[in-house]
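To illustrate the input format used throughout this study, we show a single complete record. The first block contains the structure-token representation of the backbone; no residue identities are included at this stage. The design step must infer an amino acid for every position from geometry alone.
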């Protein structure tokens, strides 16, 4: 019986690294936006929650039938609607002699008992996470756990929403009851757990965001968001035959916009950072030097290569020369970037020349609704 449960658990652990990798990008975006930084303890809990949910889903779904054209249930029934029917199953299958207490331990080895215990234990961590991490009340925990159990049962009875011709597991009202009970047991247990672990709502109380360094990971996310927004604009300008679309788009987005928004672009706003200069207000000269070097010198030659290739003009010597120049510039910049990654005191050349850097922005204080006019 235990082997039946170990099979999906092993698959959950094997696929967890891939799921964790896919989870990392939205996780970082939410943490930077909501909290201003990534707390290691909060990250550990969320990745544990992801691992738990993967185990729960795999335990419900696996093993799958060998073919999507599976056979209908042998009983001809798709659901079990009698509450506490598991008691009848236990009494019917048990080898316990109720007049001999020494045989009671046999219950721990019997299928019907283990199935009930599994259904209860399946959602105990869910209830614990809801109360400890997500700070939900008992009613919300009850409804969410019941909703999760209902999701499990509907997934099974529909053959994973029509993927399989017939359900390969039945809808069982006892499963929904025991799952919901497990969630509430976890909710109660989380009260004891909370007194022995750091409070989630107090993790950020003594954090000084002004003293925290802006990581290259965070800057990289801002870079991806900025260029995800900017590339369609450059493409649209090119289609409309606007002269030098790259120069116009970069100047407007990375110089004019940050000058107006005091160092922020869309990407930087999203991850709560901004470019700061030597004074209280970011200067236009500082922006021109910073982004002139980055997107004029480094980015410009790459943009020139893309535009040159798109037009298909020029001879082979010109193309080869440009390719060598692009390779040289990118190689030098790549080495410089790696050196800065491994030496925190070292600044990127365009930051050193412009006297600029990044700082974390404070989250705007919530207005008191009573005083809001």
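Output of the design step:
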């Amino acid at each position: 019986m235990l082997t039946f449960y170990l099979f999906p658990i092993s698959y959950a652990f094997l696929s967890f690294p891939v799921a964790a990798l896919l989870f990392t990008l939205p996780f970082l975006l939410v943490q930077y936006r909501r909290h201003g930084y990534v707390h290691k303890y909060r990250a550990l809990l969320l990745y544990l929650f992801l691992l738990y949910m993967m185990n729960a889903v795999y335990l419900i779904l696996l093993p799958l039938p060998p073919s999507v054209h599976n056979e209908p249930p042998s009983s001809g029934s798709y659901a079990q609607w009698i509450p506490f029917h598991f008691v009848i199953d236990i009494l019917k299958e048990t080898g316990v002699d109720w007049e001999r207490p020494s045989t009671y331990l046999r219950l721990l080895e019997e299928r019907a008992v283990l199935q009930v215990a599994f259904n209860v234990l399946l959602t105990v961590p869910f209830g614990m996470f809801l109360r400890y991490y997500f700070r939900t009340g008992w009613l919300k925990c009850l409804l969410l756990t019941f909703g999760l159990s209902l999701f499990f049962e509907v997934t099974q009875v529909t053959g994973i929403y029509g993927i399989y011709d017939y359900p390969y597991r039945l809808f069982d009202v006892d499963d929904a009851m025991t799952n919901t009970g497990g969630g509430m047991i976890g909710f109660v247990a989380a009260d004891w757990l909370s007194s022995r672990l750091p409070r989630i709502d107090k993790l950020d109380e003594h954090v000084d965001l002004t003293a925290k360094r802006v990581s290259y990971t965070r800057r990289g996310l801002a870079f991806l968001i900025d260029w995800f927004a900017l590339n369609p604009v450059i493409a649209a300008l090119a289609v409309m035959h606007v002269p030098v679309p790259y120069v116009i788009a970069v100047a407007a987005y990375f110089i004019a916009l940050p000058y107006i928004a005091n160092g922020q672009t869309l990407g930087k706003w999203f991850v709560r950072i901004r470019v700061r200069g030597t004074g209280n207000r970011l200067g236009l000269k500082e922006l021109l030097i910073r982004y002139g070097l980055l997107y004029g010198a480094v980015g410009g030659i790459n943009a020139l290569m893309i535009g040159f290739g798109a037009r298909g003009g020029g001879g082979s010597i010109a193309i080869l020369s440009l390719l060598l120049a692009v390779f040289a510039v990118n190689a030098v910049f790549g080495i410089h970037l790696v050196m800065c990654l491994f030496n925190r005191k070292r600044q990127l050349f365009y930051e050193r020349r412009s006297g600029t850097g990044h700082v974390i922005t404070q989250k705007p204080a919530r207005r008191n609704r009573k005083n809001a006019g």
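Structural context for interpreting the output: The first strand starts at residue 79 and ends at 80. Residues 209-360 form one domain.
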